[in-house]
Structures are given as structure tokens and as C-alpha cells.
Amino acid sequence: MDQLQAIAEKLQKGDANGIRQDVEEALNQGIEPRKILEEALLSGMSDIGEKFKANEIFVPEVLIAARAMNAAMEVLKPKLVEAGVEPVGRVVLGTVKGDLHDIGKNLVKMMLEGAGFEVQDLGIDVSAEQFVAAVKEHNPQFVGMSALLTTTMSEMRAVVEAMEKEGLRDKVQIMVGGAPVTDKFAQEIGADFYGKDAAEAATMAKARLN
Ligand code: B1M
User: Fold this and answer.
1) What is the CATH number of the domain that holds 70?
2) For residue 1, pLDDT beyond 70
3) CATH number of the domain that 195 lies in?
4) Is the distance from the beta carbon of residue 175 to the nearest atom of ligand 1 less than 6 Å?
5) What pTM was computed for the model?
6) Do residues 95 and 196 both lie within one domain?
7) Rounded to the nearest whole angstrom, what is the distance from the C-alpha of residue 97 to the centroid of ligand 1?
């Protein structure tokens, strides 16, 4: 079997150990790191995103695939850096203050990374001040916020306002999501866009890159 195809299949199966070996083997065969990234890993993750969207696979399968993706990236990342392959963009991501739900946020992170973004994951219970500090430090194109509680959604507005106050609003596009969040809410609080699910969040961010 073609080595790239073998890697993509291990990703689908979520075989973290197997994928590590297959990526090493591909590198030993002289396949370029960028080709491994684009033609095996990113395309594989994109298939997973499509299947997730179509309800053909569910959260557990996606999380297992994400673990395999991370295993593959541990091997590949140093080679990509050596080869000077840049991420397509940077995202600062977190679950807003007061909110401890992170399963959806982690899926969004994984889909963004699968689409080639570098993601600074601030974790859960992230305050507006922490989002601001991370934007100053990492200079991302996107800020992504997740909220699962109707009581914490208002924190998203606080982050948008903090970005305005700090003069950072024009430097980033703000993306919001989570079960109680809607497109209408995103518009009301002055966010740039709403991602219905993890796959859509990644597709929309990629489409909005300059
Ligand atoms: Co809680 N919880 N929870 N909970 N919890 C909900 C959200 C709830 C709807 C359950 C219910 O009552 N039916 C309810 C909220 C009610 C409301 O506000 N309307 C609730 C509550 C009340 C609570 C507590 C207050 C319970 C209590 O202690 N009395 C408490 C709050 C703690 C806190 O945050 N301060 C609490 C605690 C917890 C656990 C810690 C036990 C656990 C979280 C574990 C964890 O995340 N590590 C938990 C869980 C698991 C849930 C449910 C069951 C599942 C959430 C989940 O992970 N869904 C949830 C009920 C439910 O949804 N059925 C519930 C799967 C996940 C993949 O979906 O996160 O929606 P989701 O993400 C999707 C999209 O929304 C989107 O993409 C994802 C995948 O495609 N998306 C984005 C998410 N973020 C995005 C960001 C984007 C774009 C898209 O751009 C940046």
C-alpha cells in the first residue's frame, strides 16, 4: 500500500502507535514532510470532519483520531520546522470564564490543527484579560471562544469589549461557538462569525484567511 494512504488509514482508525511508525517510515523513504502533512494527515482529518458533520462518526471516534493526529505530529513537527513549513494561520482558543466544558473546544482545536492552523489553547475558565494577554503575546489572526452554559455566554461579549478597549479588535477575527451560541448571538455581541460545529469552525476560519 502507498505509504501516505497507510498513514491516512491509521488516522481513520485512530492507531496512534501505528501512525507514528508509518510517518517515520515515510520520512525514511524520503517523502517530503509537507507532502505527508497535506496528502495524508490534513486530507485524512478533512475526511473525518466530513464524516462527523454527516453523523457517520461521533465524538469518541473523532477524539481517537485526534490522538493519532497528535502522535503523527510529534514525529512530523520537527521536520516541518526544519523544512520551514509555516502554519496557515494562528488561533488563540479557550472556553470562557466560569465555564469548565472543554470537549467541544478540544474538537474545534483538533479540526483547526487538522486544517493547518497553529492553536494556542488557553484551556477552560479563561478570562477576558487572559484572552487579551494571549493575543498580545501570540499575534493570532483568530480568537476562538467556546461556551456551553447560558450563564457564561455573556463572557464572550466581555472578551469582544476587552479587545476593543485594548485596541486589538481590528487585528483579530473573533469566532464563537458552543451549544447555546447562535449566529444571531454572535452578531449581537460583535463577534465576526459563528461556527456551528468543529468542522465548520475550521472550514470557516480557513476561508477567512487573507
Ligand atoms: Co454540563 N451542562 N454542566 N458538564 N454538560 C450541559 C452543557 C447542559 C446542557 C446539561 C443539561 O442540563 N442538559 C447544562 C447547561 C444548561 C444551560 O446552561 N442551558 C449543563 C450544566 C447545567 C452543568 C453544570 C452547571 C452542572 C452542575 O454542576 N449543576 C456544571 C457547570 C460547570 C461549569 O462549567 N462551571 C456542568 C458540568 C459538566 C461536567 C464537568 C460534568 C461535564 C464537562 C466535562 C468536560 O467538558 N470536560 C459536563 C458535560 C459533559 C455536559 C454535557 C452532558 C455534554 C457537553 C459536551 O461535551 N457535548 C452537556 C449536555 C449536552 O450537551 N448534551 C452539559 C459534546 C460536545 C462535542 O459538544 O460542546 O456542544 P459541544 O461542542 C460542539 C459545538 O457546540 C461546537 O463544536 C462542537 C463539536 O462539533 N463548538 C464550537 C463548541 N465550541 C465551539 C467553538 C467554536 C465553534 C464551534 O468556535 C470557537
Assistant:
1) 1.10.1240.10
2) no
3) 3.40.50.280
4) yes
5) 0.85
6) yes
7) 14
